[in-house]
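Re: the request from the purification team.
They wanted to know what the chain is likely to look like in 3D before they choose a buffer screen. I agreed to run a prediction and write the result into the notebook, where they can find it.
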Amino acid sequence: MIAPSPGSRNFDAPGGAASRVFGLPSLRALDAGSSLRIWLCTQRTDMRCGFDRLAALAAQVTGQDPMSGHLFVFRNRSGDRLKLLHWDRDGYVLWYKRLEEGVFKFPRLASNSSIADRTSAVADPCQEQESAPPSLELRPSELAMLLDGIDLSSVKRSKRYRRPGATG
């Protein structure tokens, strides 16, 4: 069956229900639909680090409380593995993804980035020091693109109207 296009009416609703209008959410709606903040640790991380070391690294690199419910994303040296750390009410959840082929494509980081360097150089075996900003906040749509193999370094957002005082 072919899915109806956005804005079309569904006359074949199960149970003979009246027609209804449905549409697909925009990326803006996906991004605005959650209070979850996603932090990408831009520096390469030793994937042998576990829950506690990653939680300490999340706090150090982002300046955020790892038990806040935010999602912290860590990458390895070669870029083919990610670990995501999340506090879920009563404990940490650790998600690990290894690509069988290819690498994750991360956003380009300018050395004059507006993201302030929140940490000083501290020797940590789970973190390699680089000159890039230590962390970058991602939108949920950007994380979805990253996990789906879309090259975030080449994604360009078109100029859109923003009402004065609007956030997001």
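For the purification team: Helices lie at 27-32, 51-62, 140-147.
Please add any questions underneath this entry.
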